[in-house]
Amino acid sequence: MTATRVRVVSGDTAVREMLEALPAAMRPTAFQHPGWIAAWLASSCRGRRRIVAVQVECAASGRPLFALPLVLDTFGGASFWAPLDLGVCDYNASYAAPDFRPSPADMKSIWKRIVAALPDDAAFLMIDKLPTAIGERCEPLLAVPGLRRSHVARHPLRLDADFATLRSTRFSQTTMRSLTRKRRKLERKGRFSFHVATGAEAAEPLGRLLAWRGERYGERREVDDFYRGLTAAGDPVRVMWLALDGEPISAAFGLVEPTAFRLLAIGHEERFKNWSPGLLVIEDAIAWAIDHGLAEFDFTIGSEAYKLEFGVTAEPMWLIADQFGPHGAALLRLMLARNAIAKKLKRWIDPNGPRAAATPRPRTPPEPAVIRRAPRIDGDAAGAKTARRPGPRLPSRAIRTRSSPSPRRRRVAARADASPTAGAAAGESVVDRPRPAPSGPIGDRAGGGSRPPPSDHSTVTDLARLRGWSTSVPMNTAAW
């Protein structure tokens, strides 16, 4: 790698001039666009914080190779260096030339010189929300020691096919069928149309969007003023909205780049929520991006569940930090712990998060299954048949138990109860009772011997015949 030198400038004017002088190839995303930087410096969200910019130049030609703007933020009564974010920037990528590809050892040396050149006003430095790569450009800061995984992730959608193919192969088919029905219902209500604008034309739908979000998430005047100023300047902002008879019912706010669209905010009119106008405007925005030849529709950061319905792929983001002394090291550990706890709590508290959407409802213990028995027919001493009242209803595939006799066994039991053997004395075995002499020889079905007439036989004899046993000998001597 060629020899380099590090230069630091301070103040709004000097930082703006340095960043505006950088070539367009060094701006990887719309968050480094001159319009974005100018609106951020003019907004009230930055307050009176100090701003510096570090630039790495080629020592021989003075050509800029790398740039990193920083703002002096506060945490726990101490100051620390942070990127130009303050809650409005989703990606804090650095400015880097396409041919700036230092080795890990070279980048480690450059980073040490950058930290040494910063003013001694901060306890630590932390740069969060670093993307792994934007397009074909890799982030040089990922080679810096102390790299950590960020608590947020980005959600890009690759537009590598036409809209009909993406909708039928990558999007959730259940959601798409639902959106098709809801779109037809809205079209029957009136003139339903999709619009895209920026500048003064987008002021009214943007105002509606910010009002809807304020009702749902709470008003943030500084952020709203920043979005209004950024939209009034034009590029890179695009405001998209769906209108019903000319009135906006949902809107989306984002940034357009030569190869991608970055979605930052969506909102909808509450009285139309049953028709999912927010998802419908996203669907039309994806179709618009494909028609304009963009290669990526980026849902940016945030773990809202609706993003998964459009087939996005979550990509991790990164964080680098460096402490300046023991006090800075303690504050840095505290801040990192706070971010980790906030991430875990958000998964359970955020109603739009995927974890909250997938949380099962508490289940009540199931009631014990009750087996329904068929009506049991009993006979009394006189032979009258009575049916017991059936139990609770049973599922259709209940298993028959022995307490539910078959019709054939019922007939045998009823015939046995009506026979003279039903009056046997208590404790006397039916088998041991003397039989009356038969009136004549009657051939057994098994052949040979004789048996009593049908009107004078025992229940045991009937059961033996059912089993196929021989009854040619007295039952008290039969071999079972």
Helix content: 25-40%
- CATH architectural group of the domain at 4-149 and 319-349: 3-Layer(aba) Sandwich
* Gyration radius, in Å: 42 Å
The backbone outline, from C-alpha atoms, is: extended
**CATH level 1 name of the domain at 4-149 and 319-349:** Alpha Beta
What is the string of SSEs from the N terminus onward? EHHEEEEHEEEEHHEHHEEEHEEHHEEHH
Offer a concise description of the structure.
This protein has 480 residues and is an alpha+beta fold.
Summarize the helices and strands and which ones pair or pack.
Blueprint: E1 4-10, H1 12-21, H2 34-42, E2 51-58, E3 64-75, E4 78-82, E5 95-96, H3 104-117, E6 124-131, E7 133-134, E8 137-138, E9 147-158, H4 163-169, H5 173-189, E10 192-197, H6 203-217, H7 221-232, E11 237-244, E12 247-256, E13 260-268, H8 277-291, E14 296-301, E15 315-323, H9 326-349, H10 354-358, E16 377-379, E17 385-387, H11 407-418, H12 459-467
Parallel strand pairs: 4-6, 13-14
Antiparallel strand pairs: 1-2, 2-3, 3-4, 3-5, 6-15, 7-8, 9-14, 9-15, 10-11, 11-12, 12-13, 16-17
Helix pairs in contact: 1-2, 2-7, 6-7
Notable traits:
Aminopeptidase, 17 strands, alpha+beta, extended, 480 residues, two-stranded antiparallel ribbon, disordered C terminus, 13-stranded mixed sheet
